Every structure is written in C-alpha cells, then in structure tokens.
Amino acid sequence: MRSPEHTGRRRAWRRLAAPAAAASLLAVAHAAGTLAQTPATDFTPQEETPEQYPEGPNRDDAFYSCTACHGFRIVAAQGMSRARWDETLTWMTERHNMPEIAGEDRDKVLDYLERAFPEQQRARGGWKNPFAPQ
User: Is it true that domain 50-116 has CATH number 1.10.540.10?
Assistant: First the structure.
C-alpha cells in the first residue's frame, strides 16, 4: 500500500499537470488554425524551355525526349561522352521503362547531348571542401 505522503504528491502533480496539458493542447490547436489560415506564397514554378539550354541542332528533340520523364536541368548537369550518353539512354529504357529512342531519333538526341554537355573531367579523390586549408 502506498503511503499517504506519496498519494498526496501524486494528487498535487495531477492538479498541476492537467492545466499545463490543456494549455499545451490549446497552443497546438491555435497554431494549427493559424497555419491553416496563412495564405499561400506567391511562388510560381518556372517552366523549363529549350531556349534555356545551349543552342545547337536537335536541341528541341533532345529537350522534349528527356523532359517527358524528368527536368532537363538534371541532363545539363551530367557532362558525359557520347558512349556514356548512349549507355544512359539504354539504362533508362531497360530500368525505367522509358520508350526506346532508336535510329535517327536516337542519333539526333545523342548529337545534341554530346555537343552541348560534353564529358567533364572529374576531380580525383571525390568531392573537395572549398573551405578546407590547402
């Protein structure tokens, strides 16, 4: 059996905890209501267009072939050889069920990607912290 002192402390704790819990619930409910009433920001995503990328023959063909599945910025950031671009198209067809681009259409896309986003030499050793002492 519990001592009367223990029971008294427990009752005192409940008297203090109940109002604190109620106040917390009211604060959360108020914050949720305030957030729900906050108007949306005026952010409007900008559509990508072929004109945002390097000019060249077959730019539109490459742009619209790629943007059927993903943004073109990811393409522009790659910088690969023609062979690597070709492997990537094959991989996307096999792995992600991309419709196959074949024949002359594939050559057009590869021609543009090879010229506009050529292979980049990667630094050895991976990522380098620009703020690290040299």
Answer: no
